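In response to the reviewer comment on reproducibility (Comment 2.3), we provide here a single inverse folding case reported in full, input and output, so that an independent group could reproduce the run without further information from us. The structure tokens appear first.
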């Protein structure tokens, strides 16, 4: 009788363990620097979701799990299955731009999903444009950044910034990933003369580069 009780108890424990395993999602991946590709440790990661409860759709995100990337940059988040309309992964660390990405629950249909994270070190550039003497009313000048990572929504744009006539203008600082070599294209036009030049600027992490263009 005693042996049968132990056997029955072991079966219950096994079934419960399997059930708990089936009820969990697993989200994992690697956190790396978007410029150097080096792993980043000590990043706080949080997975959230908009829960469906009793046919009611929540408009607010609820936190399911939090964790930290290891010395090799890898992280793993395990959390109970919930009916949600959308998931969101947040990654944050001092000195880096906040990372957020929403993804479909369908990606976790198998129970696990790998989602790698690219973090951008903070950095900024402030440009001052000066039409040096002798300057003319029909002078035209434009510049643009050529290699801004396209997947950073809050970074400097890649479009042209244009100026004409006598100019001494400070352009508002914008975000550029720290540690990158930023390429800038510059175009000067005066009557029939067109001059195009390029510069490469190193963006110091967690600092603002003051860059003056004179033409």
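Designed residues, in position order:
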């Amino acid at each position: 009788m005693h042996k049968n009780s132990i056997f029955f108890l072991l079966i219950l424990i096994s079934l419960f363990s399997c059930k708990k395993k089936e009820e969990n999602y697993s989200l994992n991946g690697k956190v790396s620097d978007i410029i150097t590709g080096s792993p980043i440790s000590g990043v706080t990661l949080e997975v959230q979701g908009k829960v469906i409860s009793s046919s009611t759709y929540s408009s607010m995100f609820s936190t399911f799990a939090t964790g930290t990337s290891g010395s090799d940059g890898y992280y793993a988040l395990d959390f109970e299955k919930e009916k949600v309309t959308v998931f969101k992964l947040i990654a944050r660390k001092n000195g880096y731009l906040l990372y957020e990405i929403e993804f479909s629950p369908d990606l976790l249909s198998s129970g696990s999903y790998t989602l790698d994270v690219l973090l951008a070190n903070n950095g900024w550039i402030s440009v001052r444009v000066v039409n040096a003497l002798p300057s003319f009313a029909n002078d035209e000048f434009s510049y643009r950044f050529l290699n801004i990572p396209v997947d950073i929504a809050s970074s400097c744009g890649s479009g042209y910034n244009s100026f004409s006539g006598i100019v001494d203008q400070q352009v508002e600082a914008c975000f550029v990933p720290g540690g990158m070599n930023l390429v800038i294209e510059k175009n000067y036009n005066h009557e029939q003369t067109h001059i195009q030049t390029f510069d490469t600027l190193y963006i110091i992490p967690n600092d603002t580069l003051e860059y003056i263009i004179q033409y």
